[in-house]
Amino acid sequence: MKILSLFISILLIAQLGFSQSKDKVIFENVEPGFYQKSILKDARVVDELLVKKIAAKRFSMNQSIYNLPNKIGQYKYVWHNLPISQGSGGTCWDFSTISMFESDIYRLTGQEVKLSEAYVFYWEYVAKAKGFVQSRGKSLFDEGSEGNAVTRIMKEYGIVPNEAYTGLINGRKYHYHDDMFDEMKTYLASVKENNIWNEKEVVATIKSILDYYIGVPPTEIVVNGTKMSPTQYMNNVIKFKPDDYVEILSYMQEPYWKQVEYKVPDNWWHSADYYNVPLSDYMRLIREVVKKGFTISIGGDVSEAGFSKGTQCAMIPDFDIPSDYINEESRQFRFSNKTTTDDHGMHLVGYTEHEGENWYLIKDSSSGSRSNSEEAKEFGYYFFTEDYIKLKMMGFTVHKDAVKGVLKKFN
Fold first, then answer.
1. Residues with Cβ < 8 Å from 8, sequence gap 6 or more?
2. Helices then strands (H, E): number in the chain?
3. Distance of CA 193 to the CA centre of its chain
4. pTM of the prediction?
5. How far is CA 252 from the centre of its chain?
6. What is the DSSP letter of 125?
7. From residue 408, how far is each of 148, 259, 340, 397 by CA, in Å?
8. How many CA atoms lie within 13 A of 319 on its CB side?
9. How far apart are CA 184 and CA 126, in angstroms?
10. What is the mean pLDDT of residues 331-359?
């Protein structure tokens, strides 16, 4: 018994000693050490030196021999908000059309407003998801769309000022949609593969992805101390009427003087509301519209040799086609063989006449028009010759009052 008691006493003393330990646990931030800073850095540097760097080259027109009107001060233009970047999102259709609407709101009401592009492309993605389910995966789900998608969304959801919903969260300065779009595409691919055509469930999932990356759009905003819905803001504050805007198109493959479908992938919902006019009328309208103080959201191809990010000018070189040969046939030929594509939307805000030729001032949201200093007045603009528009710009959105004479010819 004495031995057992002694053992128990020793055990209790040992436990008491352990319970009185003063050592504590902490969690330390692990900073990069010698391995990361020196060994891995050396490996990366050597690997980079071993890779032969080939400078990217682009076949392009030499515009240095021309006296180019590529300064803002050379143009007469209407009020518009300064250019802003669309970031990495494929949402030029949205930025260009919203910008045009802002100019029109100023023209009609005198208000200088900045509207939310993010609010529009959020609900457009939702609309595309619905179309994907309803068509059993046949409807295109992509980043692109058309100018009249903006009015379609506004009629259903209204609009909000940019300050109420920027779509930029977690300190982002620019839109970055790559991960968001990839996640939505991957999800919809699984929906199609597994035949899960539950529209309510699909839309809820797409919205949850959008909410995570760009935030939840507001259903109520406060303007001048008054609570209101996005539709009330559109109707009562900025007094915007989506039905007042029309799409003008010019291509030979559909009858002129008819409303037709613009057959491009970005017209994913197959709108047939485009007023198709001959090229001569199309170009006359653009000249007249801008001189009357209207602006247009215009779309077409910006991948030509005469489209220079260096000079920010868009021209048609004569080694492509001489000016006198630019007509309906050459325009349609390029559209039909897909060397003219509907790849970018911009906001036409002004004009000038330079050396006997009409030029147009183009406000742009892409990175290509930002090759110069951010302090330059030309940062975010392009300068288009009339020939470039005539050959490569396929259609535009405009207020119906600007083209009412032409609209009367449609039956």
1. none
2. 13, 12
3. 29
4. 0.89
5. 28
6. H
7. 20, 12, 30, 17
8. 8
9. 11
10. 97
One-letter identity of residue 365: S
The strand pairing partners of 126, in sequence order, are none
C-alpha 12 chain-centroid distance: 73
Which residues are paired to 351 by β-bridges?
76, 360
Task: Judge residue 7's burial from the number of C-beta atoms within 10 Å of its C-beta, 0-12 exposed, 13-18 middle, 19 or more buried.
Answer: exposed
- Residue 333, pLDDT > 90, answer yes
- Is beta strand 296-300 parallel, antiparallel or unpaired with respect to 344-354? antiparallel
pLDDT (0 to 100) of residue 237? 98
DSSP secondary-structure letter at 228?
Answer: E
How does pLDDT run across 230-263, given as a tens digit for each residue?
999 999 999 999 999 999 999 999 999 999 999 9
Q: How far lies 318's CA from each of 52, 55, 315, 337, in Å?
A: 36, 27, 9, 20
CB 314 within 8 A of CB 308: yes
Mean local confidence (pLDDT), 202-219: 98
If one compares 22 and 294, the residue with the highest pLDDT of the two is 294
CB 252 within 8 A of CB 329: yes
Asked if pLDDT for residue 343 goes beyond 70, the answer is yes
pLDDT at position 152 is 98
Query: Tokens 């063989």 identify what position?
Result: 337
Q: Are 264 and 167 in contact (CB under 8 A)?
A: no
- In this predicted structure, the answer to whether residue 16 has a pLDDT above a threshold of 90 is no
Residue 408 corresponds to which tokens in the numbers above?
Answer: 């009367």
Instruction: Please report, as a single letter, which amino acid is at residue 160.
Output: V
pLDDT value, residue 17: 53
Contact 337, 410 (CB under 8 A): no
Percent of the chain surpassing pLDDT 90: 85
pLDDT of 143 reads: 97
pLDDT for the residue numbered 136: 98
Query: Residue 296, SS3?
Result: strand
**Residue 376 in tokens:** 């330059």
Mean pLDDT of 209-220: 98
Alpha-carbon separation of residue 16 from 10, 11, 12, 22 (angstroms): 10, 9, 6, 12
What single-letter amino acid sits at 155? K
User: Do residues 166 and 265 lie in contact, with contact meaning Cβ atoms separated by under 8 Å?
Assistant: no
Q: Of 186, 191, 232, nearest to 209 (Cα)? A: 186
Give the chain's domains with CATH numbers. Answer: 72-407 (3.90.70.10)
- Please tell me the distance from the alpha carbon of residue 374 to that of residue 380, in angstroms, as a whole number: 9
